[in-house]
């Protein structure tokens, strides 16, 4: 492949990596991972609410990895609230899982920035033959994609299996009990998903640049060996 085309492919991969790094950094600081609605069960049962009356007892909230906000409703008007995971919700959430989500998000950001530098170095510099060359790019892309996958799996398990939204809605509520009605992933979560996909797309760009996947056997090796044996 001509050198110019390789530069274009590596530059494209570098730009994708840089955009992913910026996206993950932004996602870490924004409360736009989950948007949920929850019902005030206590209030609804007291007045035997049904149908459209349930709207007066339905609140909503959105949150990220560090903070969030929402509105509680129990038939007496809106009750806005804000919260932070550290230190407000330390006793209510699965701290180990939540900390791992933040940790792998940070690792994802760092590796993506390193990958950006390596892609640009391979495009405009003279790459080394080991970690600075194609093998290192494959390795970084694979590890970064795996970190993105872990972030999504851990966060999804925290939300769905450990009922994170229920824990947040019921935190410091001794009188009323709340039950989550709906949850949906929002912008920041899908940014991580796009980054996960982009890292494996970078692997394809490296292959298009003419570099074989790691541990792939060359098709030319066996015929060359066979012809050498025939010569002797």
TrEMBL record:
The chain crosses the membrane at residues 97-123, 135-156, 189-209. PROSITE patterns: PROKAR_LIPOPROTEIN. It is found in: Membrane. Its main location: membrane. It comes from the Eukaryota. Gene3D superfamilies: 1.20.140.150. It is a multi-pass membrane protein. The keyword Repeat does not apply. Pfam families: Clarin-2. Keywords: Membrane, Transmembrane, Transmembrane helix. Belongs to the clarin family. This is Clarin-1. It comes from Echinops telfairi. The lineage of its organism: Eukaryota, Metazoa, Chordata, Craniata, Vertebrata. The gene is CLRN1.
